[in-house]
Automatic annotation (TrEMBL):
Keyword Lipid metabolism: no
Single Gene Ontology MF annotation: heme binding
Protein name (Swiss-Prot/TrEMBL): Cytochrome c domain-containing protein
Domain of life: Bacteria
Alphabetical keyword list: Heme, Iron, Metal-binding, Oxidoreductase, Signal
A GO CC annotation given for this chain: cell envelope
Lineage, broadest ranks: Bacteria, Pseudomonadati, Bacteroidota, Cytophagia, Cytophagales
Amino acid sequence: MIFHSVRPQALGRFLALSVAALLFSFTILRKTPSEEVKDYYEAHLGRLQEAVIHFRETSASASATSLKASFMACRAEYKRVEFAIEYYYPNAAQRLNGAALPEAEPSEPEQVIPPTGFQVLEEYVYGPTDDRITRDLIGQELENMLYQIRYLQGQAPSLTFSDAEVFDAVRLNLYRLATKGLSGFDSPVAFASLPEAATTLEGAGEVLKYFAPSASYRRQVQRSVAAVQAAGTSVASFNGFDRAAFLVRYFNPLLAALQQVQREQSIPFVQARRAIRPSAVSYFAADAFDPIFFAPTDAAPATPAVLALGKALFQEPVLSAQSGRTCASCHIPSRAYTDGLKVNKSLLPGVALERNTPTLLNAGLQPVQFYDGRVSFLEDQIHEVVSNKAEMGGHFDKVTSALRRKKSYVKMFTQAFTNDLMPLTERNIRKALATYIRSLGRLNSRFDQYMRGDTTMLTGPEISGFNLFMGKAKCGTCHYMPLFNGSVPPLYSKVEYEVLGVPASTDTLQSTLDKDQGKYLLHSIAHQQYAFKTPTVRNTTRTAPYMHNGVYQSLEEVIDFYNKGGGLGLGLNVPTQTLGEDKLGLSPTEKRAIVSFINSLTDTTE
């Protein structure tokens, strides 16, 4: 037998190469955190499908208790993948978990799209279920949901998560939790918002665990989950939950920890133009909202020269031809840019304007303008108001000619629009005014300061009022935090309209519905009859009277109207009312607390 000797150096090189090859193979086989998140998504999407199929197969004969248990099991699985579905497939998310309200396109007003998804299903499951029709409706709704789930599963192979998108999606879903979740918007009948919040928070921990987050982040997730779990699961628990304390002690620190993990791991923030800056630590931060998101791409920058020009034009009578009226005539700065009137006078003889003058504070932080949302941008609203014979009665050709005769304006336009060959134009008038109005963003109330950590800024009644506003009184399901208007979180890119059944007068003995048909007048969509954009609640202590027709002089009257169930509660015929007709059962003390909270939304920045 012959033995061949092996040199030690050669053996060492061989072993080194073998180890390197093994490590290289391991590196190739090892999944990235984002790939593991995708596996998590696909696994829970599969579990959601299984839960819905089981629900459908048992729905015909299951007891009422079993129906509710199956419903909650499906919701729990949905909440674990909601972050991704909402982020990548918003249309599917709308069909799975949108509001139980019909939709229609202006181009096809007769083609009404009925609502589908969990919120429709919830009304069936938590109502009387002992008749065959309801059982059939439950089965049909589950089939609709399965169709959407199968679509998502079909899209899954081509879906790619990036690290930045994972963090972005989780952050947006936390915003969604704090607004739609804690307010009860997401679970209007079952009142399961708190246990579902715990599931969402657990999901935020499970998704980010693949990135090996800091102990601080894991601890904040655990503390947040424990806080909502400790509250309980009953309706009384939902009504009594201290949302203010939760947001300050748990939610905001969780968001801060999430941002810290992202920065520590050098994961970039997505480059997206959004209402909330992707890099903001929280949507309560002073600079969280970007007004440019709500502006057209050619909006004038907020330079000192443009703002000075816009402010001057705001007070310029020339815009209304010979009437002497200015923008400031109806939007008085000392009245939070309203006029204190039920409706203002029309320039047409013997006629009043149809609608109450809205505040301009934070008017730039909404995706549409006017009570009926008929234009998107402030620039277009300015054109319509100035040109309207009843409001300003101006003619832009005459306005520009008159302004050119004033040397001061020629100079101001030249300084504001330095790159334009002809600076003083109708287009630049609108742009300067719009930029000035966008500068009237005010998010520095005592409430904002409280949410930024100064817990001395709110009194006990004000905190109670906030908790009622976001809970039992259901105000927060339409006036979305933190803008407290109808812009839908977390993207705030569309606005909701509500049919409240507002009366024509305060006569409760012979109440009649206000004749203004609102958004219906634009496209004749049936379910939009008497619908109006949800306005902001911020600064409303300075903007009386209230509602689109100025019918109520005090916040107490407004809250009493809601407490009675809106127009239906007053006995009016409002078949399209979106406001729940059930009485809220608010006590006098609770009503006063809500008014106190609304007072805390008065801005301190002038």
